[in-house]
Amino acid sequence: MRCLVTGGAGFIGSNLALSLEGEREDEVIVVDDFSVGHFKNLTGFGGDIISCGVQDSCWWDKAGKVDIVFHQAAITDTTVEDQKKMMMVNVDGFRSVLDFAVKYGVKKIVYASSAAVYGNGNCPMHEEQKLLPENIYGFSKVVMDNLAKSFSARHKDFVVVGLRYFNVYGPGEYHKGAAASMIYQLYMQIKSGKRPRIFKFGEQMRDFVYVKDVVRANLNAADAGKSCVVNVASGRPGNFNRVIECLNSAMGTNLEPEYFDNPYSFYQNKTHADLRKAKTFINYRPQWSLEEGIRDYVNLLEGKKQAQANV
Ligand SMILES: NC(=O)c1ccc[n+]([C@@H]2O[C@H](COP(=O)([O-])OP(=O)(O)OC[C@H]3O[C@@H](n4cnc5c(N)ncnc54)[C@H](O)[C@@H]3O)[C@@H](O)[C@H]2O)c1
């Protein structure tokens, strides 16, 4: 297969591009403007890379006919408040992917949505509940989901699958800085001998999902028979105290958390995905528990098997 991965120099996109190439021996083309993603994530990648803004059409003819698009490119820093920029990159970027798909007859599109569409909604979060995004990032993902729905209604021969990722962690995220997962931030603190700092009293729950499960969800979504939007998570949320326990165990350390006051007026106390729809529509079954995922990640970081271990 010839696959296009937008945002392929980023965290999830690079893991996906390398898996498509390595596991499935697909021909993979990456589109990324390198605004955030890092070339080190693509060490060993053998495909073509088009450096271009996804919202423009400059990449269309260079990419040409492909069998599927995995659309990951986006502004992913949820603290960005520039509404114009967020909507241009995230929503117009997706519009550009859909227009490209029509022009080149690409009938399969898998795109990254987000649990940010649910805001502080009820748990477990299911795809049909009211969407209450709390920031422009979450709002842009709601608009992308709406766009996908109307596109699928107009183009019945296309399959468009939206994946609402929850809190993803794993190799290839170092370039995100403060926007990298809390698991990576806490790992770095412990690694430098500091006590891991979390909001009082570490009981906020997150549905953390290991990037290897997210890659698997994308590969499964490529075989989906009809358009849908589904959650991608572990389905087993853990709190921040538990994350620190798992990190200490994997790293052979014993550092107690240092608690501090949460300065944010808006903060999600819990995320927890309902995965029934993901099982039905894309046969998604997460393989990695929090403990096993953290252990694998720490092994990769400590073993310097991934590019980011050198940073
Ligand atoms: N990491 C998570 O926990 C998480 C959770 C929910 C949803 N998502 C979604 O998953 C996707 C991938 O996220 P990630 O964590 O890998 O983030 P990332 O920031 O590492 O990757 C995004 C990539 O897109 C590229 N990019 C940004 N703007 C671009 C543009 N205009 N044109 C072309 N490329 C552009 C960046 O350079 C980067 O390589 C995003 O759509 C994000 O919203 C991620």
Give a summary of the structure in a few sentences.
This protein has 311 residues and is an alpha/beta fold. It has a domain at 2-172 and 209-233 and 268-287: Rossmann fold, CATH 3.40.50.720. The chain has nine helices and 13 strands.
What would the keywords be for this entry?
single chain; 311 residues; alpha/beta; Rossmann fold; 7-stranded parallel β-sheet; two-stranded parallel ribbon; 9 helices; disordered C terminus; binds nicotinamide-adenine-dinucleotide
Textual characterization of the structure:
The chain is an alpha/beta fold and 311 residues long. The protein has a domain at 2-172 and 209-233 and 268-287: Rossmann fold, CATH 3.40.50.720. The protein has nine helices and 13 strands. The chain has helices at 11-22, 60-63, 83-104, 136-154, 182-191, 211-221, 240-251, 276-282, 290-302; strands spanning 2-6, 27-32, 48-51, 68-71, 108-114, 159-165, 167-169, 197-199, 205-206, 208-210, 228-232, 238-239, 258-260. The strands form four sheets. It has a seven-stranded parallel sheet with strand order 3-2-1-4-5-6-11, with helices on both faces. It has a two-stranded parallel sheet with strand order 7-10. The protein has a two-stranded parallel ribbon with strand order 8-13. The radius of gyration is 19 Å and the shape is globular. The two termini are 34 Å apart. The model is unreliable at 305-311 (pLDDT under 50). The structure holds nicotinamide-adenine-dinucleotide (NAD).
